[in-house]
Amino acid sequence: MAASPSGTRPRVVLGVSGGIAAYKACEVLRRFSESGHDVTVVPTAAALEFVGAPTWAALSGRPVASDVWSSVHEVPHVRIGQSADLVVVAPATADLLAKAAHGQADDLLTSTLLTARCPVVFAPAMHTEMWEHPATRANVATLRARGAVVLEPAEGRLTGADTGKGRLPDPGEIFEVAREVLIRGVSMGSTAGLTDLAGRHLVVSAGGTREYLDPVRFLGNRSSGLQGYALARAAAARGAEVTLVAANVTLPDPAGVTVVRVETTAELRAEVVAAAGSADAVVMAAAPADFRPTTVSDAKIKKSDDGSAPGIELAQNPDILHEISTHRTRSGSVIVGFAAETGDATGSVLDLARAKLARKGCDLLVVNDVSGGAVFGSPDNEAVILAADGATVEVPRGTKSALAHVIWDQVATRLG
């Protein structure tokens, strides 16, 4: 939890507009409250039709601010926004986005948005047709141009039988992205440059691929996908359009991120190469299998009576990082690779990593010393970032989110 500039608990305003997904904001509120944030809930009149004020008050431990006429002597329509360290609106309906984009102030929430000088995060939720309407797209573009973080809605079941893009992202993931925005905003001391990756399309790969031997067995690795997901979440918090190609990862989808799921290295290569064509940067945090069986049995391979093991012939998989680094379809793009090294008789971890950087042709290489299984599945990480221009950045042990932001700092610098 980042401290408020005033040294107190971070002050978060949770705005709730009138959509059916309003009940999911209760989980967002619970996450903030239980992690030590001081939360003021500002629901619209329509939101109170879905979830009543007693629920918000009980979960936040504070009175609910619902209209400009209560506690008038405290001037709530100005004070709440002025004192906030972060404003999160979840769900943000098409109506709320339109009012925010055009500067309307006809209730307490829209007035708060006008007076806030802190980071603002909108988590839209509406029917697909409303999200895709040119008016909504223009309003979203306007808000993003002003520095607000407007997350992309998720795809899935909507109200009734409808399915499509417009679903509120997972509440836990909204909290994670919002916390990223808050921490970065407090550390920077300003909203200037907070969304430095806005307008950029970034591609991240995560997880570990599987190469099947038969219908139930495969060759794989220990990659959990945590670092790749942290990279995707951090990029979304900085305003980017993010495509996450996830190989066999069971984590919830980061809010505001388009997730493409794959299993094998061939599938990973196809999706990454396709997405890289329109990407400003690609970060290959996934761990593709270097080899695959030359044949795959249609039936489960049985044990032999004499105790002998079947022979497995392997073929080398394509080198995805080398391919997208040496055959770039977008001028000026930045390619980042990862190297999980242990060192051996031929050289140290950094010796092997520098050779890999030159061999792959990427711009940056994030080097992890994985001796003894370090890093895999851990919430923390430490790394050395090597650059093709000779620069070296050492990142001390910290959260994978912290490392993700250092990586994006390096990418942002090279994107200009």
TrEMBL record:
CTP binds at residues 290, 300, 318-321, 338, 356, 360. Residues 1-201 are annotated as: Phosphopantothenoylcysteine decarboxylase. It catalyses: N-[(R)-4-phosphopantothenoyl]-L-cysteine + H(+) = (R)-4'-phosphopantetheine + CO2; (R)-4'-phosphopantothenate + L-cysteine + CTP = N-[(R)-4-phosphopantothenoyl]-L-cysteine + CMP + diphosphate + H(+). GO terms for biological process: coenzyme A biosynthetic process; pantothenate catabolic process. Residues 11-176 form the Flavoprotein domain. Binds 1 FMN per subunit. One of its GO terms (cellular component) is phosphopantothenoylcysteine decarboxylase complex. Its EC number is 4.1.1.36, 6.3.2.5. Pfam families: DFP (PF04127), Flavoprotein (PF02441). It comes from the Bacteria. Residues 197-413 form the DNA/pantothenate metabolism flavoprotein C-terminal domain. Its cofactor is Mg(2+); FMN. Keywords: Decarboxylase, Flavoprotein, FMN, Ligase, Lyase, Magnesium, Metal-binding, Multifunctional enzyme. Pathway: Cofactor biosynthesis; coenzyme A biosynthesis; CoA from (R)-pantothenate: step 2/5; Cofactor biosynthesis; coenzyme A biosynthesis; CoA from (R)-pantothenate: step 3/5. One of its GO terms (molecular function) is phosphopantothenoylcysteine decarboxylase activity. Catalyzes two sequential steps in the biosynthesis of coenzyme A. In the first step cysteine is conjugated to 4'-phosphopantothenate to form 4-phosphopantothenoylcysteine. In the second step the latter compound is decarboxylated to form 4'-phosphopantotheine. HAMAP family: CoaBC. In the N-terminal section; belongs to the HFCD (homo-oligomeric flavin containing Cys decarboxylase) superfamily. In the C-terminal section; belongs to the PPC synthetase family. This is Coenzyme A biosynthesis bifunctional protein CoaBC.
